[in-house]
Design brief:
With 252 residues, this protein is of the alpha+beta class. It has a single domain, classed as Muramoyl-pentapeptide Carboxypeptidase, domain 2 (2-Layer Sandwich), CATH 3.30.1380. The protein has 8 helices and 10 strands. A hairpin with a 2-residue loop joins strand 6 and strand 7. Helix 1 runs antiparallel to helix 2. Bound molecules: zinc ion. The site of zinc ion has 5 residues, from strand 6. The site of zinc ion (ZN) has 5 residues, from strand 6.
């Protein structure tokens, strides 16, 4: 515990302040200790997927469609993102096995998974942040953030770190299949649309599009995935297998 250390080293400075100011300083110091303890994620020095049991989901669920957007140009950065050397999907084994169950559950009703992103290397997240700071580059605005100023994307849309780097988070949609023909279901927005319309329960999304979002959420929840309510496509397996470890192995 770090608390006793804080009390012994910090108390002398707090004690000669008057009441309100002392309370504020103490409260902020305590908050800092709590945040540091709850949010600490270390980057693994592993260089191969088999060292950490990140599984090739394309091999595990061969019927799933892989449309790994950050390996190509059709994403908000507008080019392949650093760390994506191939359009492949990796997840830690418990999450990958649970996703296989989701795919099996849905197959009987004629649905298939469309995977947009899975494990994401730490270096890719850093690439996002660099792109977000480059306000001169606006070429993907019409498709991905038409209603937002690029300067606001770092306030809630693009984060310095991502749960995807911890290996148990997946971005996906659904396809409806008729025989061998499969079509992507309409979810009301595309993947990675920076807009409140992408909030899973946004009231402007109704009818078939609402039903499609709910079908995906019910199927994912049944096998242990939790939706991020601001993005209909983003799911994290619970409990996370390695909640304090991020990975930086290139996707290949
Ligand atoms: Zn995501």
């Amino acid at each position: 515990m770090t608390m006793p250390i804080w009390i012994s080293s910090g108390w002398a400075g707090v004690i000669d302040m008057t009441g309100w100011r002392a309370w504020c300083v103490g409260a902020w110091m305590l908050l800092g200790v709590i945040v540091a303890q709850a949010g600490e994620v270390k980057v693994s020095d592993a260089t191969r997927f088999d060292q950490v049991d990140l599984v090739d989901v394309g091999a595990l669920i061969p019927e799933a469609t892989l449309e790994i957007r950050y390996a190509g140009d059709d994403n908000f950065v507008g080019r392949p993102v650093e760390g994506y050397l191939a359009p492949k999907c990796y997840l830690l084994r418990p999450a990958a096995e649970a996703l296989r169950q989701v795919a099996a559950d849905l197959a009987g009703d004629g649905y298939r998974l469309r995977l947009f992103d899975c494990y994401r290397p730490v270096r890719a997240v850093r690439d996002f942040v660099r792109w977000a700071h480059d306000l001169a580059d606006q070429k993907t605005k019409p498709r991905f953030y038409p209603n937002l100023d690029k300067s606001t994307l770092l306030d809630g849309y693009i984060a310095e770190t991502s749960g995807h780097s911890r290996g148990a988070t997946v971005d996906l949609g659904l396809e409806r299949c008729d025989g061998a023909r499969c079509e992507l279901l309409d979810m009301g927005t595309g993947f990675d649309r920076f807009d409140t319309l992408a909030n899973t329960d946004d009231p402007r999304i109704d009818g078939e599009r609402k039903a499609n979002r709910q079908r995906l959420r019910a199927a994912m929840q049944r096998r242990g995935f939790r939706n991020y309510p601001l993005e209909w496509w983003h799911y994290t397996f619970q409990p996370e297998p390695t909640p304090a470890t991020a990975y930086d192995i290139p996707v290949q």
